[in-house]
Amino acid sequence: MSIFNSIEYDDIIYRHRQSSDLLWSLKTWHHPLFDNKEQSIKSKQLINKNTQILSIITPVHYKILPRNSEQIKSDVLNSLALKYTIETLNNETNTYEQAKTIIQEMSHRLNLRSARFLAFIFAKIFNQVYENIYIERNSIDYIYHLYCLKPINSSTTIPSSPITISSTLFAILNTFSRSSSSSSINSDRNLLPSPLITKHYITSPRIIYLPTHRSYMDFIILTYLCFEYNIPLPCIAAAQDFLGLGLLSNLLRHCGAFFIRRSFRTDLLYWTIFDEYVKTHVIHGDYPLEFFIEGARSRTLKTLLPVRQGMLKSCLECYFHRQIDNLILIPISINYEKVLEDNLHANELLGIPKPKESKSGLFKSIQILKKSFGTMIVKFSQPIHIHDAYELFKKRQENKPNSRCDTFDRCIPRGIQPRSICQQDGFNELEQNFLNELSYRIVNEQQCLTIIYPITVTAFSFLNSSVVMPKNRSISMEQLFIDKNTLFIENTSVIEDFSTHYQIFWPSNDDKNNLKQRLLSIYSDVFELTGNNHLKLKMTGDRLVDAALIMKMIMYRNTCLHLLAKPVYILLACQVNSQSSISYKQLKTYYNFFIHLFAYEFVYDQFPVDNIDDKYFNKYLTYWIKKNYILHINNSTYEINKNFLEQILLITSPFEQYARAYLLIYEQENILTENNLSILIKIYQKNLLTKLDSQNIISILASSSNVISNALRTLNLSNTSTALSQLRYMLTKIFQPISIHLRAKL
User: Which of 51, 112, 345, 547 suits a disulfide with 694, CB 3.0-4.6 Å?
Assistant: First the structure.
């Protein structure tokens, strides 16, 4: 943990305010990988050979790289997999014409003119709504190394043009690259080797950017940064809903966005086109790809689980088919001090439908330009090299007892049938397990880069209550500083088991007046100042409006709960049993119960599975004993230290509220006969909203569509017919009703 230090970051807002946005958007810019002016004579000779490629997806060799939009569409339409699908559907008329319509609607038309215009427009917008946009400088340098470009602020001489090779030589070179000695690579992690001599970079790097998704701004910011730093612009997977934005959707399309339906599992033709469209980008390496592994914006401001694996699976298939030698995944964390759509997010969680993306809605949103949204901080994780990750995974599997891993599995390319046709044969067990581990690792690494803003600590302070929040509650600046130290400074060592990269964005010199003014200016719709200079929530008396305000505070508190989750489960188990002691065995039982209960609520170091022996349990228990929060009575009995009850309640209150919200959901009438999860969530939410109490934190949490969804998914995770009664029994046993009156209100 560290206090955020702006010296380690580039502030692109500050930089742009010192110069002209128009001149910046018209700066000299070229594609640093495939610009013909930059290619060596040898690579041009290789590219100009009209040699047929042995490719499952696209047996076509282009002379010019990168391909334009029309070439990519033609590539997909002529792919063997799509031809097979069309033949399979030959009983339906105009299948080929349908395919042309789908690919026309889906595909991007990336060009530099539109990118310049978008850069100019959003430079104006960003300069208006954000005080700072900080970019991690070291991460940009690393991406420069991946592309074999000259790093920022570095005198290291790196060749300006990478070597590109014909796919006809790929197999031979790939063999030598994988057998090359790892000792030739610089062992010093601080000195990055040139991509030209590293085993993974004989071909151009296939890079996939994987940002967190909390706001519409996520679609723009990475393209904006790539233009800023002269890095190849990515192609971005966007929902088809954005096609309703008219001219803006066309601008996004010309800046690299390709539009896909939210759901198309049952549409064989659409699935094949999507699959081929993604694969042809990965195989040819024309452009990096960008997509959101969560699948949708997270209204809760924490990771949406389970992750959506479809697009990642298509990318990995290219590696498993030996069509590429490596794939580089870069998890990215985009941290907002204030999210543009936080009001909409809170309303949507409480069942108010999302406004449809439209031109009229776009014009209405222009009013946000009058507001300040504080700071945005973009952090990049270390790249994940699929070749290395998969080889390491296979070795671990081989070393497991009773391993059935086949060393020679998948050496021969597989058939041309799309994955949706032969779903069971798409990935073998080893590959599917690797995909599951990899996808969870991605969201874990995203969460490791969390930035904790003052609003997070403020939300903790206001919501520090087991159930009901006092109507006229106010918080002093002094209390915020005390709570910040209790949550994140004093407990740094235990939080660092999850992440050593999280940072706190806090006013310099702990300036209380600066903190107060910042909270009042950025969150003017949330806070007001009382007569004694305390912060107070702007409660209106309207049930739904006040509930949305509390939900907004819950959202901002959510941003850091994954850092505390596992160690706090031990504290929570002791705290709810504060009237008596608890045995070691019972404490560990409750600890494992909470881990599985919140499997879809919080990101852990690994996804919880049955019979897992968590290696951190004893370490966390020892930590709380040393901190004197838990008293060790005898060899196997523990109890909470009531002298620190105030601090313990602050730390455990979010998790107790979530657990009680789950119990409230599970106590609804048994309506699990409905199989469709989306419909089931709406039924539960409708029942709970009729009893909504705007002062009751648990009632508001339990009415959240996301919490209901996660609670129901936990039932499915248990895979037993008695799961509901078992979970209800355990939660009731742990959390005894506070009072009959409160129970009646819930």
Answer: 547
